[in-house]
Amino acid sequence: MSLEVTGKLLVKYDSQQVSEKFKKREFVIELAEEINGNIYTNFAKMQLVQAKCEIIDRFKEGDLVKVSFNLKGNKWERDGKVNYITNLDAWRIEAATGAAPAANNGGQQQYAPAPAYNNNGGNNNGGSNFNSAPNFNPSPEAIDDLPF
Which pLDDT tens digit goes with each residue over 69-116? Predict the structure, then answer.
């Protein structure tokens, strides 16, 4: 499953040699989302693996980046207990285009807020509900239960 997000690069960690055959490098991006006039901030820790570990070197913390990644999950059993692990495996990182800083306040870059949240629940799939995702966790402000 290939996905894409745009956010501010907050932290770049050093590469880790996990085993003789496996190397990874983690990084964190800040994601801002506007929902009904409020801005909500989330932080996503992602990883690069093997030869991809170096692709983040050309970016510095604070840069606005677009990250293409795959959602990976593993089942892990230990001492009879089952655990599930989810990884966000980045495979491409590029400078975000068209999202220039909104202002420069004394050296602090302020990025324009994310586009408004679209809460219509529809995918442009010609009216078919096949593979369409329902609204995920709509905000309380989006639910209007008033009779008028």
Answer: 999 999 989 999 999 999 999 999 999 875 444 433 444 444 444 444
Residues in the chain: 148
3-state secondary structure of 115: coil
CA distance readout (Å), 14 to 23, 26, 29, 37: 11, 7, 15, 37
Handedness of CA 55, 60, 61, 65 (dihedral sign): negative
Tokens of 136: 């995920």
Nearest C-alpha neighbor of 6 from the set 78, 85, 87, 92: 92
Contact 64, 97 (CB under 8 A): no
Q: Which CA distances in Å does 140 have to 35, 58, 119, 120, 144?
A: 10, 40, 12, 15, 8
Q: Measured between alpha carbons, how far is 50 from 105 in angstroms, rounded to an integer?
A: 38
For the full predicted model, state whether its pTM sits above 0.90. no
Domains of the chain by range and CATH? Answer: 2-115 (2.40.50.140)
